[in-house]
Amino acid sequence: AAAIEAGDIQLIGGNPIAPEIVDRFVENPDLVVSIVPAPGFQSVWMNPWREPFTVSDYNKPLEELMAEPGFKTRLAFAKALDRDLYIKQAQFGRGQPCYGSINPAMTTFFDATLGESSNQRFDLEEAKRLLAEAGHPDGEGIPPLKILHTPDQRREVQVIANILKTNLGVDIEPDTKDFPVLIDEFDKMNFDLCRLGSGGDYDPDDALVDWMQTDSKFNGRNRDKDKMPFGNFSAGRVDELVEQQRLETNPDKRKALVQEANKITSDKVASAFLFHPMDILVYTKAVNFPPESRISGLVDLDRTTIS
Question: Left if phi > 0, otherwise alpha if psi is -120 to 50, otherwise beta: which for 264?
Fold first, then answer.
């Protein structure tokens, strides 16, 4: 920030810019701030093999899952996450509420109405009712839960913990790990909650295949398979839909398959989907950055010049 303001550098992009300093750039008349939807999704993962989130079979119809205490608790947490408040407090307003792995950067595949129809849509009274029905009114009987996160996520995780404490009465303790340790624990399914997500997903094949299939590479691949037959999520119908969309060449048919799979993962709470990030590029007015070079998540300098 200091370097671009002093004129020592002309452009900041690539890795995410700390959201708390973006307003400082916006207010600087010598800078251009370009903000577009970024590829990716961010979630709060709840371990289905640990109390109070246990779910042994996601293949059950949704109405049957809705009768199970573990699923009710998962859904209560997801519905109690005020995503708008989180984005305001943790991301300084720069993000989009998330209800699935298909993100706005995927353009036509993204379902902008999912937030209205998803089982996870914010509804505090419903969340409290579900948690009470699960045997935990006002969080009663739920011990303090640890949430894995990286050092740079500590402040935003405190926002999440405050929201869940205020809305459900549950205690969430931040558990800070460097990323190599965190991803190892995540792959082994050794966590209560984990704050983790994906970036670089331009095509649905990436988001769904990487995270939402039974054999996905980020779906508990190093877990004890004798004790945990699946990782974070496993649904036969989603597996089928994902394989079908990989081979479908008709765009409209593929879109329908993708959105059906995405809706199932949302309704069955594969994770508590949190937000889609924004891609922020900052450069001085001396930089001529043509619109066709503005690719979310990438910095294409082939046609860029400096006056």
Answer: alpha
The set of residues, in sequence order, having a beta carbon less than 8 Å from that of 119 and lying 6+ positions away, is 62, 75, 78, 79, 266, 267, 268, 269
pLDDT digit string (tens) for the chain, length 307 residues: 999 999 999 999 877 788 889 999 999 999 999 999 888 999 999 999 999 999 999 999 999 999 999 999 999 999 999 999 999 999 999 999 999 999 998 989 999 999 999 999 999 999 999 999 999 999 999 999 999 999 999 999 999 999 999 999 999 999 999 999 999 999 999 999 999 999 777 888 888 999 999 999 999 999 999 999 999 999 999 999 999 999 999 999 999 999 999 999 999 999 999 999 999 999 999 999 999 999 888 899 999 999 8
What the block records as the tokens of 247 is 């081979």
Other CB atoms within 10 Å distance of the CB of residue 184: 12
User: Residue 177, Cβ neighbours under 10 Å: how many?
Assistant: 17
Q: Which amino acid is residue 52, in one-letter code? A: P
Closest to 34 in 3D by CA, of 24, 45, 26, 44: 26
Kindly give the residue spans of alpha helices, DSSP state H, lying in the chain. 2-6, 22-26, 62-65, 69-80, 83-90, 114-117, 124-133, 154-168, 179-187, 204-211, 236-247, 251-267
